[in-house]
Amino acid sequence: MRLVLGTLFIVGTPIGNLEDLSLRTARVLREADLIAAEDTRAAKVLLAHVDALGSGDDRRNPGRRVISNFEGNEAERADQIAEVLRAGRRVAVISEAGMPGVSDPGAYAIAAAIAAGARVEVVPGPSAALAALVGSGLPAERFTFLGFPPRETGARRAMFGTLRGEPAAMIFYEAPDRLAATLGDAADAFGAERRASLGRELTKLHEEHVRGTLGELAARYAAAPPRGECTLVIAGGTAAEPAVDVEAELRALLAAGLGPKDAAARLVVRTGKPRRVLYQLALALQRGG
């Protein structure tokens, strides 16, 4: 007897405005046997809206269950989801807002479903990254989505250093309390005159796109941190960045009186090389004279 497996639905949900809810999203969520939600409280609000839209034969599945599926437990939940799929059931994965698996839990469930041989369907929904990109007014023929920059300053500056020659527009998510530091590091890496745009509270009542240079945005948000969720779009480079002679630059910084630690920190953002590697080289140069 051939086993009939269930379907895993990866469901994009509104990022702030419930009017962006699609008819297909509403139907899938009403029909699901199990919903794995990043935030069960947010899911309760969404499902109340979804269920109110149903009528007649399109009412909610009376056996539907909701379980949590967040960063701390999604690996464990993946096994449970796979078992439900093996039983032929319909499982929907939702994040607090937006698309599961994109800077949100979802990847473990998808991998488990594929490994089990179950069908995986993606139900598209609103995207903060695309909304911010289009609203930025920057060239959008090529773009790359990079999620949240590292929290640690050195790692963040190193990542920006590796992107100095990136020709595509770059899209980042960032927390309001870290935005000023991120903008400052980006200005150091790409130049204060590089064009950028900050999308804030996208699809919500107070949505705005603040456009300017990285230097202007860094100064603005250092003085007054923003509120709400932020999506940063940085224009791609227009010419290849000149190669940096790391050894020569370190020698110059050491000669100017900087210690190996400070010299390495200066070059992280310009080269994208790990601070530890630059520090070891600076030490060797200092000892070698």
CATH-defined architecture of the largest domain = 3-Layer(aba) Sandwich
Question: Which runs of at least 5 residues are low in confidence (pLDDT < 50)?
Answer: none
Question: Would you tell me which CATH topology of the largest domain applies?
Answer: Cobalt-precorrin-4 Transmethylase, domain 1
Strand-residue proportion: 15-25%
Sketch the topology as an H/E string, one letter per element.
EHEHEHEHEHEHEHEEHEHHH
Give the CA-based shape: elongated
- Counting structural domains, the number is 3
**What is the CATH superfamily of the largest domain?**
Tetrapyrrole methylase, N-terminal domain
- The number of helices is 11
Structural class: alpha/beta
| Strand arrangement, major sheet | 3-2-4-1-5
What is the top-level CATH class of the largest domain?
Answer: Alpha Beta
Distance between the termini: 77 Å
Q: How many strands, which pairing sense, and closed or not: the largest β-sheet?
A: 5 strands, parallel
Care to count the β-strands? Answer: 10
Mean pLDDT: 92
Polypeptide structure, described:
The model has no long low-confidence stretch (mean pLDDT 92). The radius of gyration is 23 Å and the shape is elongated. The protein contains eleven helices and ten strands. Helix 6 (153-162) crosses helix 10 (260-271). It has three domains: 7-126, Tetrapyrrole methylase, N-terminal domain (Cobalt-precorrin-4 Transmethylase, domain 1, 3-Layer(aba) Sandwich); 129-234, 2-Layer Sandwich (Methyltransferase, Cobalt-precorrin-4 Transmethylase, Domain 2), CATH 3.30.950; 246-288. Strand 8 (195-200) and strand 9 (208-213) form a beta hairpin. Helix content is 43%, strand content 17%. It is α/β, with parallel strands linked by helices and 289 residues long. It has a five-stranded parallel beta sheet, sandwiched between helices. Strands 6-7-10-8-9 form a five-stranded mixed beta sheet, with helices on both faces.
